[in-house]
Amino acid sequence: MTDRTTDSEAARTTPAPFGARLKAATASRGRLCVGIDPHAALLRAWGLDDDVAGLERFALSATEALAPYCSVLKPQSAFFERFGSRGVAVLERVVATAREAGALVLMDAKRGDIGSTSQAYAEAYLDPSSPLASDAVTVSPYLGFGSLTPFVETARAHGAGLLVLALTSNPEGPEVQHATAPDGRSVAGVLLDHLRALNAGVDDDALGSFGAVVGATVDPTAEDLDVRGPLLAPGFGAQGGTVADLRRVFGPAARLVLPSSSREVLAAGPDPVALRDAVARTHDALAALG
């Protein structure tokens, strides 16, 4: 006998769109996104070995301490994948633990491919039946924005979100992102236009589910960064980004910014109270952003 889900059942089980959930979460828990980045230097700083046991201790301790107090946690998939299947199993537990504590999970995977492979990546990170299912995922559009269609469709089907690489702060980025398309627009500008189109129809006081990744320390840009969706700003904190930088880079679009910090917060561990205090201090600093 085939188990079929009716339209009314689907409506009951599909969560509110990611943009709506993110807006509610940042209103109640602050707008800081904390990265869970268990790289070797941080493991050693916590007095842990750079092995699966150290990874598990670090990642779960950080998640348990921070998830009840942060709107978004952003595990960096690569730092778990380097330990193979055992590392991915830890990542699954991080996702489950964070979501159980009420934090949204943004999987920092930066995936991008075409056709069925793109669809498989989308199902891995956005389909609720996957043990890695997250509220949103970072993706790369540099095989052409249309290559992200499986991600877009899967995100819409499950109330999830996408954060698309647009203007990153790595020094190699401008050779692609600042290149010009045949119509004279920059590649980054084309990507931002695509995101605005995906968020078309979103109410003025709402937040779309499709956003951009724009570094907190990039040079000021003439691009219109208001895509009606979230603007993930990595590089805030230990990498040099400040509240003043967020105002400088994002201007009127600063209201959409989701600042992301990893080392600035994680370096306060392993004491959970110190980790939470680091989040509280950052929340206080970001309050000035409005």
Radius of gyration: 18 Å
Strand content: 5-15%
Largest sheet: 8 strands, parallel, barrel
Assign the structural class, choosing from mainly alpha, mainly beta, alpha/beta, alpha+beta, or little secondary structure. Answer: alpha/beta
Distance between the termini: 55 Å
Order of helices and strands: HHEHHEHHEHEHEHHEEHEHH
Number of alpha- plus pi-helical segments = 13
**What's the mean pLDDT score?**
93
> Share of helix among residues?
40-55%
Low-confidence stretches are: 1-12
Net shape:
globular
List the strand order in the largest sheet. Answer: 1-2-3-4-5-6-7-8
Instruction: Count the E strands.
Output: 8
Q: What's this entry about, in short?
A:
This protein is of the alpha/beta class. 44% of the residues lie in helices and 14% in strands.
Structure, explained:
Helix content is 44%, strand content 14%. It has 13 helices and eight strands. It has helices at 7-13, 18-29, 40-45, 52-66, 77-81, 84-100, 115-126, 149-158, 174-177, 187-198, 243-250, 263-266, 272-286; strands at 33-36, 72-75, 104-111, 136-139, 161-167, 210-214, 231-234, 257-261. Strands 1-2-3-4-5-6-7-8 form an eight-stranded parallel barrel, surrounded by six helices. Helix 4 (52-66) packs parallel to helix 6, helix 4 (52-66) packs across helix 13 and helix 7 (115-126) runs parallel beside helix 8. Residues 1-12 have low confidence and may be disordered. One of its GO terms (molecular function) is orotidine-5'-phosphate decarboxylase activity. Residues 31-278 form the Orotidine 5'-phosphate decarboxylase domain.
